[in-house]
Amino acid sequence: MSEFHPEPLNGLKRTHYCGVLRLEDAGKDVVLMGWVHRRRDLGGLIFVDLRDRSGMTQCVFNQAVNAEAFEKAGLLRNEFVIAIEGKVAPRAVPSTNETLETKDIEINVEKLHILNPCKPLPMNISDDQIPDDGLRMQYRYLDLRKPRMVRNIALRHKVAKSVRDYFDGQGFYEIETPILVASTPEGARDYLVPSRVNPGKFYALPQSPQLYKQMLMVSGLDRYFQIARCFRDEDLRADRQPEFTQIDVEMSFAERDDVLDMIEGLIHHVFDSTVKAELPEKFQRMTYADALEKYGSDKPDLRVDMVIQDITDKVGKTGFGVLDAAIDEGKRIKAFVVKGQGGATRKEQDLFKNFGVAAKLPGLFFIARTQGAVKSSLLKYLGEEKAMEICKATGTEEGDLLVVAAGESRPVSVALGKVRLDIANRLNLLNPKEFRFLWVVDFPMYSWNEEENRLEAEHHPFTSPLPSDVDKLESAPLEVRAAAYDLVLNGCELASGSVRIHQRNMQERILRGIGLSMEEAEEKFGFLMTAFGYGAPPHAGIALGLDRLTAILAGESSIREVIAFPKNTNGVDLMSGAPVVVTDEQMKLVHLKYDL
RNA sequence: GGGGGAGUGGCCUAGUGGUUUAGGGCGCUGGCCUGUCACGCCGGAAGUCGCGGGUUCAAAUCCCGUCUCUCCCGCCA
Description:
The chain is of the alpha+beta class. It has helices at 67-73, 133-138, 140-143, 147-169, 210-218, 256-272, 288-295, 312-315, 321-328, 346-358, 379-382, 384-394, 409-426, 504-513, 518-532, 546-554, 584-589, and strands at 29-41, 45-52, 55-62, 81-90, 105-116, 173-174, 192-194, 202-204, 223-231, 243-252, 284-287, 309-310, 332-338, 365-370, 373-376, 401-407, 437-441, 446-449, 454-457, 484-489, 492-499, 539-545. It has 17 helices and 22 strands. The strands form five sheets. The chain has an eight-stranded mixed sheet with strand order 6-9-10-22-21-20-17-11, with helices on both faces. A five-stranded mixed barrel has the order 1-2-3-5-4. A five-stranded antiparallel sheet has the order 12-13-16-14-15, sandwiched between helices.
């Protein structure tokens, strides 16, 4: 590499990005700067695909036309950083690369500047190979050069920009909240930050700006949003990072539907400025209870129909032990229709059965409607007539397959919900280009925590119960519904929010409900309740996962593909090595000792 | 904390009925080539198969352990 004497820019100015030149630019003198994506050396003629974040342009070095530039071009290798001066020309020979946006032109290079050479790379940039994730993370700056990653990062920018534009237009203020906050007892594990000037005391990194944004409502700032980094010290997944980004929103003098309307507008705005998919004006709404009953999930994927139906009464007594037991013991028999699978082979049915086994169903049965006939292992118990009645009642038409299972009502729905998705996946029914939004509303207020033997807030303890259920808060807390709502997209939880509590006595009741003593409630959330005493407006809000939203828009299955510098499954940044051991001196400064 | 998958020159991989000079592509390198666009052609260097141990006449291949990456369950108000 020592034979190269990289040239300084020396006042040279770029005139265009590489991906923007078109036929109408022919004849222009241009200066392009970027990376050598590929070079094709034909002997007396060298082609270089010059790449920057915008795309690529073919640069031509012709020995007969410009010997000096040609000689220099012979030195070029992958990922050299160069600047070229030249003239845009229509392609002398039509490009065979139809996907290249600049395919109609090329640059006849008059002068080549080698700004920086490049050593042989630890991964290839210019092909479709996907290296091991560890290697991609270690050399993330190289990974990010790939057109796919540039696209994803640019898309993320567009989404964020469109979010800001939208909320600005709706009168929201973007307000930053602290990163160094107080640790809270509820929820995920906090990342802790020791304080040098407060020996023995710690900040926590926020799991969400929840309390601060509520305080902003008490302040009268009325409408707040923030693209906020949040931190949770929990185990990772493909769609979970220790730090992630939320679009955090709060509105004063607002009820549930005000928030839903506002977010529907946001989603339309974001989609219009990115993927241009057609979305319904209003998103479908479904109660939590319905979602679980009909889809076996609180985040149903509505890209496939296959609604779970209760057929207990239609089946009745059959003499078949498994099904009769369901009726005798007050359990339920449920089923859903798979269109066009009446002719599924035995092998295929066995595969579906395995989905049932994986979902821990004791048994999964099929009723298949073929031409004029009904086929089922249940036929000897049901009889053909009743089987046909069940088919008609469930909408199982000729050529369809009815999938049947029995058990406790909620668990059998949940299990069938899993089978439903497995079958849909197996049959390739989930179109990644289709966007099915759904609001799930009326979540339960509490759920029972077996380990700690107490109630815990299903959403969070600042969520308001539905006014109609308030009188059951103490007598039947598990029946109380909350004014909480989720936005679900294709079976993925995209946003979660609620109408908040804004009155001190209600906040006390809920905190007591989750097992906090008055002292603990006062210690942890006293400032909140104090604030509620000084004229807190009714308010409601929501938070959307920016990483997930962007990943879905980009068609990526992992949020790591839309985060510039993500961490691996152990929470390690393989590029910088974080987290790292610190010196004893640093430990002493923050008054800490190891106990490993 | 638990379960599954993977680890072969710098990169992507073939090869696990046990014995191969461990094969190919990209990249690197020497040479030829004036219209390529995943350019082509001829030649070359580079791997002992994540690491450690075991079984065997013989291990990339089988067994045990371990490390790393990854997916899932738990967990994620």
